[in-house]
């Protein structure tokens, strides 16, 4: 059985909840990523922020990314999977919610241990399953 841990990239760097969106953007640029988990104390996952969130929910709304914190944009509880979850369950969650990145946590501490992105799926799964995933996530909403 292939698990989330088998395909995730470990060492995902968090932006802390009190860090600014300008700092989050700098980290994204340095790491060449489009999303960062938002973490509180002890690597506890609080949310996820994307480059799109910074543009649409901060800059486009006239907020200052040098003053707005990552925690201010963390809405609700993020979708996550546990490291030992079967990869088919992981894909089902991503397809159902049409998301391209998914934090991976350990249990029971709820601490971030990695992230799964479209690129991880493309590298870790057979081509036909990747095609199904992309089709499901990118399909037009009706």
From TrEMBL:
SMART domains membership: CBS
InterPro entries xrefs: CBS_dom, CBS_dom_sf, Diverse_CBS-Domain
Keyword Manganese: no
Highest taxon above the source species: Bacteria
Record's keyword annotation contains rRNA processing: no
Coiled coil: none
Annotated keywords: CBS domain
Domain CBS: 8-65, 74-132
PANTHER family the UniProt entry points to: CBS DOMAIN-CONTAINING PROTEIN (PTHR43080:SF2), CBS DOMAIN-CONTAINING PROTEIN CBSX3, MITOCHONDRIAL (PTHR43080)
Descriptive protein name: Hypoxic response protein Hrp1
Source organism (scientific name): Kitasatospora cystarginea
Gene, per the UniProt record: hrp1
